[in-house]
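REQUEST
  id: r-88c1
  op: predict_structure
  target: L-methionine gamma-lyase
  payload:
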Amino acid sequence: MSAKSNHNHSNNKWQPATQVIHAGANHDDPHGALSSPLYQTSTFAFSSSEQGSRRFAGEEEGYIYSRLGNPTTNELEQRMAELEGYEAAAAAATGMGAIAATTMAFVKAGDHIIVSDAIYGCSFALFSELFERFGVHADFIDLTDTELLASSIKDNTRLVFLETPANPHLKTVDIDAVHAVIKDKDIRLIVDNTFMTPLLQQPKQHGADIVVHSATKFLNGHGDVVAGIVCGSAEDIATIKGTTLKDMGATMSPHDAWLILRGLKTLDVRMQRHCENANKVYEFLTQRSDVKTIYFPGAPDHNAQKLMGHQMKANGAVIAFELDGDEAMARYFLDQLRMIKLAVSLGDAETLIQHPASMTHSPYTPEARAKAGISDTLIRIAVGLEAADDIIADIEQALDACKAQWQQSA
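RESPONSE
  id: r-88c1
  status: 200
  body:
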């Protein structure tokens, strides 16, 4: 059920800033449209019953049904594969759809997986609850400890799954070090690269077998899509597309793929602005006595520093910090913000802020949150594209209001 690809391949000769615009582009439009056409169709007509039979039998390339392949989603898949340096990619309806389809394609009842102890809340719920129901056990460990990783591997270990930087407090993992432990074993290394994008980090260069993204975030960049991407070898992507993604149905709509293709064209310039603004916000936060702890890859004492320039090209645009107070103070601070939006996402033009313990990481048990270092006062801010001075001014007035309220109550 493969779909015919009529797309141009750059063979990775272009720089990433060019790839986000041109990689995988379809030049076969009969009208010469500059913008990629949107194939908003559920199904595709066959020229004959024989052709339909051949396509279903895999004897002829071509499109059948948009859940199985679509020219618009195919163009996005080609572009993302080239950006991450892999042979192929699969587009999914959501980031969690991508993660679930990918991981479930390679495990069965009785298998074991190893997962980073700091990951997105719904990923944690998938592995700790749903996988357990179907007989797949997950151990959540500190993957910066390679000795612990080595001792945690079992005969039935099939996957190692990690995020770096991790959601929400930006803990980073040395992908090369993890790969070195498992490279001689029949274990796939899967890396969630959502926070960095392929412009700031390419896990394949460091041994990752598969990379997943929530394309909802930086890849789309405009807050109007939920989607996921998986990049990997042609064989692995064919397995994912032909089994879990196809049969569970978490495939991306052509319209969402078209919106992401449009968003990708500005990814390079957007990431530059995101990172510049985040650096300025970080510098401001370091000057506040009411900010107790800051988690940011650009901080001198952050464990990302040893990876900077090698695994990571920049600090990214997400910062987590703790206020010098309690949960009530953290919530009061959030409620005082005027321009910054209280919302659970990242990578949008708008600066977004949220309270992980009660929002994105609420699926964690209190014990798991404590182990992962997600305190009740932890706040995560995804720095947007507004003028940095305006972002900082809004944070400043909210902190000042918070400080005045607590001084008054004292």
